[in-house]
Amino acid sequence: MSTARSFISAFALTLSISASAIAQQPQQAAPPPGSPAATITIPGDQLPPPPQKFGGKIERDARDSKPYWPSRVVPPKGAPNVLLIITDDAGYSVPSTFGGVIPTPALDRIAQNGLRYTNFHSTALCSPTRAALITGRNHHSVGYGVIAEQATGFPGYDSVITKDKATIGRILSDNGYHTAWFGKNHNTPEYQASQAGPFDQWPTGMGFEYFYGFMGGDTNQWEPGNLVRNTTPIYPYVGKPGWNLVTAMADEAIDYVNRMNALSPDTPFFVKFAPGATHAPHHPTPEWVKKIGDMHLFDQGWNKLRETIFENQKRLGVIPQNAKLTPWPKDLIKEWDQLSADEKKLFTRQADVFAAYVAYADDEIGRVIQSIQDMGKLDNTLIIYIEGDNGTSAEGQPNGTPNEVAMFNQINPSVEEQLKYFYDVWGTDKTYNHMSIGWAWAFDTPFSWTKQIVSHFGGTRQGMAISWPAVIKDKGGVRTQFHHVIDVVPTILEAAQIKQPEFVDGIKQSPIEGVSMMYTFDAKNANAASTHTTQYFEMMADRAIYNDGWIASTKVLRPPWVTVAKLPAPGDYPWELYDLRNDWTQAEDVAAKNPDKLKELQALFWKEAEKYQVMPLDSTVVSRMITPRPSLSAGRTNFVWTRPMTGTPNGDAPSLLNASYNFKVDVDIPDGGAEGMLVTQGGRFGGYGFYILKSKPVFTWNLVDLKRVRWEGQELTSGRHLIEFDFKYDGLGAGTMVFGNYTGIGQGGTGTLKVDGKVVATEKMEHTLPFILQWDEAFDIASDTGTPVDDNDYQAPFAFTGKINKLTLDIDRPKLSPDDVKRLQEAARAAGDGPSADDGKTASAEPPQVGTVGLSLVDKGKLRIDKRESCRKQAEAQGLGMVDRLKFVQTCVQQ
């Protein structure tokens, strides 16, 4: 440590001497206007700026004329480089910087060289936080009330950042900055993510001149099927065992800043660096897993971990000395001492891999920071490092999961099954893993709740550090002012001395809704009152309103790990009240003591909600993923392809879920046979593939890596063949959800494989996937760009060695008959609280809890959660397999 400090001190002294020497030298005059090297700083009220007036002279003869070049636009003098770092799914106490046990030296470095912010907030979910981060506006204001994959047809929820809300990338780029974005992009509408575009909602269309990252909420870090450079899909991992995106994107960012420095050393850069860590899947390298495992950080369990973190936080001064540790939710999550030996073994492994992912990502971030120092540009670089875009994720379910795709399809493997099949490969390319909910709660210490929950700080409080050596002199200082992610953009603009434009591309801009945090950079303002006095929060009907040290919060009625739950109408949610001036962690509800204050804040919430496009409130979660939305396949039932095509994302690909369908492939098989992919969607962790294997036609359904159903025919002769796969679905389809009934989805069916009109294989599927395929994989024809649907059959890219003349797909989605509608309406009425198609109300699209007439809405919601857990336990006790267990639970819940 002393050597490092000596080096930094020597480096700082060298910079000081160099700057002094430069100041004593004669300064070169600025190039005159019209010369090739001329520059200009624009007013910035209109972007792009109007064309510059020609200041030369034009005669008939060039010898009598004077050239005049338009000046190159540059930012104001002294504008800093900006490195904006945001990690994923990491709560307040994940990093060592904020009391956690996981080493994060890069974040520590920024905090020690700058300021540590202890009262900074997100929106509790990925896309919404990131939309607010790049626009300076509330997430509903820019169409991201929820993640892009849950978009609905309302302005606050359609996942479209409208043209009157230019991003920080666009503003800085037009003012002369180099701009780039590395890592996660969760701010392109799901239905605009294909190669058909449009590309105006991609990073390169939002002002970022260079983009290297993945499209969507998460990706396989070993084999990211949704990785792009600018707007072109790329697959750099093919043929490179051990390749990992976390390292690759750091390499890309380092190369970018060095390239810009070499080409244009006087032009500042703005880099958004957003690794997939630590969103599931948790994919660190084996070296990092060993490093963390050898530290034995989690052997004593999650309850002891909370106590340790709480002590660390008080010692570091990142929570007040009088802060209270919120109680452990004994009614929801087991205490560590209640666990079996097998549970402890599995859950410790899950935490080790998660922590290794945290430390690995921070180390790679440290390399990017060091590269800026190595260029001699750290002093005038504003670094904003936000640990997490929401609280730690509890979407891993009570047991954790080896496959996050399974979780979203309501399948949760037992501890015994996970130990047997996945323990040794946890975190490798053979898993799409997530950890148990107990760890998520512990990593949000000292607060309650987790990701998805906006009403309590476990979902929204993020550790953040900011450094800018040339400006921030109170190194190692702590700032406690309330701030929000919408405050980042105005902070950057003030630092760069650039104002928000009034017009961009001729469109009048809506006001930025955040406030600058630059006042906190001055040590004199260390204890100044916050300039951000009011902030609403809303996510899937859970909500809160902060105002001047008070926060009114709705009671959490749906734990984040329960993705399907019958809930009361949003207007019936009970409220809580907290006096944050004396209760920093929301430990004591004082609503009963302050009824007038609660009413005042409730009224303020509705005022803010109307102002920022929050209505209509919607409590549904997973069902929104299959809500119809615009796409290239919307409204179509027939598709035809005549040549290879890869990379169509789920949002634009035809969906086979909860429907009957028919594939016909007209192929030529060459002499000597053929093999390769015909058509596929999804991959190792959930999807289907229709392919030729050693000249035999095969159709495989991968049911989230827990079961595979396979149809196979005889070897094909050379020549032309028509290969067909026909599937007849047994369920009523997604239409039943309008009545709060889930029995129409995820049902079974019968698949038939034919060759030249002759049936060669018939197989019954007892159950199908109800909600989603593997989301980081694409719909591909003639090769497979991601992971295989069956590793035992082939490895990607598995290009077809024959010729596809024509591929057709016909989809037949079930339609409810009048009798079906009547029966569903009667069942909804019998439930006492379920919607019906003729009651004039909007259906919640969640399954009903029948037999609960006479209970309050809140009690019914609680009973719905309890019943599902009881059904799961019954299924486990019967020793049912994964698919049979899912079917049992769905039937049980309806009884």
UniProtKB/TrEMBL annotation:
Signal peptide per UniProt: 1-23
Region Disordered, residue ranges: 24-50, 826-852
Any coiled-coil regions, as ranges: none
PROSITE patterns noted in UniProt: SULFATASE_1
Gene3D superfamilies: 3.30.1120.10, Alkaline Phosphatase, subunit A
Domain of life: Bacteria
Keyword entries, A-Z: Calcium, Hydrolase, Metal-binding, Signal
SUPFAM superfamilies for this protein: Alkaline phosphatase-like (SSF53649)
Pfam entry (one): Sulfatase
Residue span(s) of domain Sulfatase N-terminal: 80-498
Family recorded in the similarity comment: Belongs to the sulfatase family.
Designated name of the protein: Arylsulfatase
